[in-house]
């Protein structure tokens, strides 16, 4: 089979309909189908627009979920007509990721629930112990961590400071994108937690932005596998897990995460995603485990 023929078949495979949802919309998902979104360069493959995300309920895998599929990164109109297939193959290879990303999502430790403002919601003595245990566990893995990105909220910042003592030399980056919030209305709903609709609209957009900014396959220029730590919050982590696995994001509240727990996502160069661990606290003594 010629390269051009194989490319045509691949394009046909990507042209199927998609189930779409708005990351901040409240309500049921639209039915499968919809108009095709032109690819860069004008090809007609149906790829969901950047303003939408796959709902994950159609029984299929969107290989371009992070918009980093090589075919989506080149302009087919600019293909060199003289070199033809060789030029296209070279450009596709140039856009391919080579490395695997390991994402460690850490939930902050136990904190003072009575604090009225964020600055007052500091870690409890037990929470500081939990962070020490988490830091020791991460260090014991023997991995060369590239960075620690953490929520700017007090409980996440304090957890990061304690963890980082066990990982000397690893740079720390604070971001507001990873702050706690209401990502999307859960289904089924719960009676004990009902944020205002506007909170889903505002927080959902921010948390979705965090997902798109941080969770994707490696850049094509990255040569070696990377190991990155994200210290944030239960709602953010649960939403990210659903989105990364292309599960219905409305199911995020069906998962529970202990304080100081470790969730490990793996993103392969071809865009495949695997969940190695979810909310692991097996390294903590039973009397140190909480879920507040």
Mind explaining what this structure looks like?
It is a single chain. With 292 residues, the chain is of the alpha/beta class. It is 27% helix and 14% strand. The chain is built from 6 helices and 8 strands; from the N terminus they run αββαβαβαβαβαββ. The strands form 2 sheets. A 6-stranded mixed beta sheet has the order 5-4-6-3-7-8, sandwiched between helices. Helix 3 packs across helix 4. The protein starts with a helix and ends in a 12-residue tail after the last strand. The relative contact order is 0.17.
What are the SSEs and their pairings?
Blueprint lengths: L2 H11 L6 E2 L31 E2 L30 H11 L5 E7 L17 H16 L6 E5 L2 H11 L6 E5 L21 H18 L11 E7 L1 H11 L17 E6 L5 E8 L12
Parallel strand pairs: 3-6, 4-5, 4-6
Antiparallel strand pairs: 1-2, 3-7, 7-8
Helix pairs in contact: 3-4
């Amino acid at each position: 089979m010629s390269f051009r023929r194989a490319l045509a078949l691949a394009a046909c495979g990507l042209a199927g309909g998609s189930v779409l949802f708005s990351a901040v919309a409240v309500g049921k998902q639209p039915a499968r189908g919809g108009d095709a979104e032109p690819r860069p360069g004008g090809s007609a493959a149906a790829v969901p627009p950047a303003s939408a995300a796959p709902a994950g309920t159609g029984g299929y895998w969107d290989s371009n979920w992070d918009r980093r599929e090589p075919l989506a990164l080149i302009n087919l109109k600019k293909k060199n007509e003289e070199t033809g297939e060789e030029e296209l193959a070279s450009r596709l290879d140039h856009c391919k990721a080579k490395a695997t990303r390991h994402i460690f999502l850490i939930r902050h430790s136990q904190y003072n629930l009575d604090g009225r403002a964020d600055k007052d919601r500091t870690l409890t003595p037990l929470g500081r112990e939990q962070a020490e245990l988490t830091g020791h566990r991460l260090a014991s893995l023997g991995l060369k961590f590239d960075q620690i990105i953490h929520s700017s909220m007090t409980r996440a910042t304090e957890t990061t400071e304690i963890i980082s003592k066990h990982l000397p030399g690893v740079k720390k980056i604070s971001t507001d994108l990873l702050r706690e919030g209401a990502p999307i209305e859960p289904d089924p709903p719960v009676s004990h937690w009902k944020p205002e609709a506007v909170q889903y609209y505002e927080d959902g957009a921010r948390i979705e932005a965090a997902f798109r900014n941080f969770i994707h396959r490696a850049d094509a220029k990255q040569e070696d596998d990377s190991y990155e730590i994200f210290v944030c919050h239960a709602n953010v982590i649960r939403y990210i897990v659903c989105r990364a696995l292309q599960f219905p994001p409305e199911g995020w509240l069906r998962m529970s995460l202990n304080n100081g727990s470790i969730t490990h996502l793996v993103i392969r160069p071809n865009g495949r995603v695997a969940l190695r661990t979810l909310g692991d606290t097996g390294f903590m003594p039973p009397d140190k485990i909480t879920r507040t």
